[in-house]
Amino acid sequence: MVKAIVGANWGDEGKGKITDLLANDSDIVIRFQGGANAGHTIINEHGRFALHLMPSGVCHENIVNIIGNGVALDINKFIAEYEDICSQGLNPKLMVSDRVQVIMPYHVDFDRYEEERLGGKAFGSTKSGIAPFFSDKYAKIGFQVSELFDEESLREKIGRVLEIKNALLVNLYHKDPIDADELTAEMLRQGQLIKPFVADTQAFLFDAIKEGKNILLEGQLGSMKDPDMGIYPMVTSSSTLAGYGAVGAGIPPYEIMQVICVTKAYSSAVGAGAFVSEIMDEEKAKELRDRGGDKGEYGATTGRPRRVGWFDAVATRYGCKVQGATDVALTNIDVLGYLDEIPVCVGYEIDGEVTKDFPNPTKLNRAKPVFEMLPGWKSDIRGFTSFEALPKEAQDYVLFIEKEAGVHVSIVSTGPKREEIIRR
Ligand code: GDP
C-alpha cells in the first residue's frame, strides 16, 4: 500500500513529524521532489533532527529510505547530513535512484547571482541551486548521478555545458569563468562519495509493491508552492503534489491509495508572494511566530523568520483538492492556546466581491482576507492524546477546519513530539 504525505499550504506544515509518526508502519520512505532547500524537524527518542535532504524514515532502523529520481540531489549535503545522523547514533538504510540528477556547484552560484541581480524583485530563494538545477534538467543539460561514474563522457559533457554557463557568468554576472578540469575532478570526487548508495530504485520499488510492502511518499513544501497549481511564479521548481509522487519516485500512479494532507492550525510562509491571511500587525505576528512549532517559526534551513498568518480556509480547501487529499493531519493546534479569539480566513474579497474559491495567481494578488472569529480555549493543550479531552472550543476549532477543508481530519498534532498526537 502506498501513502503520500504532502503539504496543503506553503510548506512547514509539520510534515516531518507526521511522516516520522507514520513511518512506524512503513517499510520504505521516499522523497520524490525538491531538494535540500527545505527542512523537516523531527523530535524523537534519538534526539532532534533537522533533515533537509534525508527522508524522514532515517530515524527508524528497519526502514529503507529512498532519494527518488525527482529529487535535486546535492551530494555534499547528502553526505554531511548522513554523517551527522550517524554521529547521533543512527544507522539509516539509504538508497539513491540511479536516475536522480545532481546539483552542480554552479547551480548554487547561479541561484545566488540571480537573486542578487534581481535585487528587490528577488524570489527569496534559499540559494540551494534548485531553480537553476530544474531549469537545466528540463533544458536537457543536467547530470544524472550515473554520469559521474564515467570520466571520459563526463569531461566531454562538462566542457559542452560550460560553454553556456561561462558565457552567462562572464557577460551577465561579471564573474570568473569555471575551469572544466577542476569541475570534472570535483564531480568525479562527488560521484565516488555517493556511489555506495546508488541503485536501481525503480526495480526495487516494483518488487516491493508486488510484495505488498508499505511505502510512504514524502512531499516537501506544499500545494501553494507547486509550479502549476500554486502561486506562480513565487513557487518552487518541482511539483509538490502527491500526483507527482508517482513520477518522482517511479511507481504506478494508481498505487497511491491514501493522500494525507498536512495543514497547520495557523499559517506560515517563506519567501515572497501572495499570503492573504498574513498577520500585518508586527507585534501580533511576532507573538505567534515565537510560539509556533517547537522553536518558533524560523526556517529549518535558513533560520530566517517565517511570515505568519491565521488559518486560511480558502487556500487549505484548494490545497487539499489539488493534492487529492483523503485525510487531513492538523498540526500545531497547541500553539493557539494563548488567544481569546482566533481569526480564521473564510473568504477572499477580490474587486469588491467575496469568494470562497482560490483564484489564479493574477487575481490572488488583489485578494483581501475575510475573517471570522472563533472562540479560543485559553489553556495549554500540548501533549493531549484524546479528542474528547480537548476543551470544547478546541474540538470545535478542529471540526470547523474539517468542514471548511471538506476532508476528514484523522490526525491532530498537539505538540512537536511523536507521542503528542490525537488519532480520530
Ligand atoms: P515540515 O517541513 O512540514 O516538516 O515542517 P517543519 O518541520 O519545518 O515545521 C514544523 C515545526 O513544527 C517543527 O518545528 C516541528 O517540530 C513543529 N511541530 C510539528 N507538529 C507540531 C505540533 O503539533 N505542535 C507544535 N508546537 N509544534 C509542532
Description:
- The protein has twelve helices and 20 strands.
- It folds into two domains: 2-84 and 203-423, Adenylosuccinate Synthetase, Chain A, domain 3 (Alpha-Beta Complex); 101-196, Adenylosuccinate Synthetase, subunit A, domain 2, CATH 1.10.300.
- The radius of gyration is 22 Å and the shape is globular.
- Strand 3 and strand 4 (47-51) form a beta hairpin.
- It has helices at 15-23, 75-87, 105-118, 130-138, 151-171, 180-194, 201-210, 242-249, 282-291, 313-323, 361-364, 392-405; strands spanning 2-7, 28-31, 40-44, 47-51, 64-67, 72-73, 93-97, 101-102, 198-199, 215-222, 256-264, 267-269, 307-309, 311-312, 327-331, 341-350, 353-355, 368-375, 409-413, 421-423.
- The site of guanosine-5'-diphosphate has 25 residues, from helix 1 and strand 3.
Which structural category fits the helices and strands? alpha/beta
Name the CATH homologous superfamily of the largest domain.
Adenylosuccinate Synthetase, subunit A, domain 3
Classify the beta-strand content into a percent band: 15-25%
Low-confidence stretches: none
What is the CATH-assigned architecture of the largest domain? Alpha-Beta Complex
The share of residues in helices is: 25-40%
- Please report the first level of CATH classification, the CATH class of the largest domain: Alpha Beta
The number of distinct β-strands equals 20
Overall 3D form: globular
CATH topology grouping of the largest domain: Adenylosuccinate Synthetase, Chain A, domain 3
Instruction: Give the bound compounds.
Output: guanosine-5'-diphosphate
